[in-house]
């Protein structure tokens, strides 16, 4: 009579596996108290919970495994408590008894509740981790299918595995799709300041200038040049520091109008050449002298 009641309780009344086992444990305590003089009081202890769990396992095994051929094929045997266990190849190892001889369990609603609770204990781990944890104690029929069912029904896992909304790609900017020569457009992305300055100097030495500077490149040169307000030209003293290079490059690219002029007449061309030569000497002469 207890086995039938256990199966009914496990199937119908409570949604979690632990609550169902505790209810069976309270029923067993009630049976013990009405049958013995020494009454059990207080909260449930581990031994009572384990006894109730074994009773639940035996009840499921009696209802699901009646075929002797199937049990022989699975190499199942009964332990001293009457539980059906599987004889594995690890019988002579030093592992725990539950790992060497796992408990045989069917694929039913009670086992689904057990897997769901183990899934929560494993912090919503994936199928492989969950199967590994279960195989340390149980040999569940159709375990992969049941684990997949539990994972698909888990609301927490669904929320974290949901597909994010994909924003449609915006068209690339005109500067990125226009065909240009090498070093004609300069950008800066976590590179050193020397890379920006040297790229600009390649154009300056050829009487040319980049068609476009990225905002990061301009900001980098501006920030460093603003720390040094004095612009030094070829007056006999040469400085190898970056501030002079930044100041001169800003003069020719941003502050001055030399690069935006259309050199047509001889006077404008001579002024352009004279000012450009002065800046070139300031930029490159320290390196020629070895400073």
UniProtKB/TrEMBL annotation:
Residues 112-162 form the Integrase zinc-binding domain. InterPro entries: Integrase_H2C2. It comes from the Eukaryota. Signal peptide: none annotated. Pfam families: Integrase_H2C2. PANTHER family: GAG-LIKE PROTEIN (PTHR47331:SF1), PHD-TYPE DOMAIN-CONTAINING PROTEIN (PTHR47331). This is Integrase_H2C2 domain-containing protein. It comes from Nephila pilipes. The lineage of its organism: Eukaryota, Metazoa, Ecdysozoa, Arthropoda, Chelicerata. The gene is AVEN_230738_1.
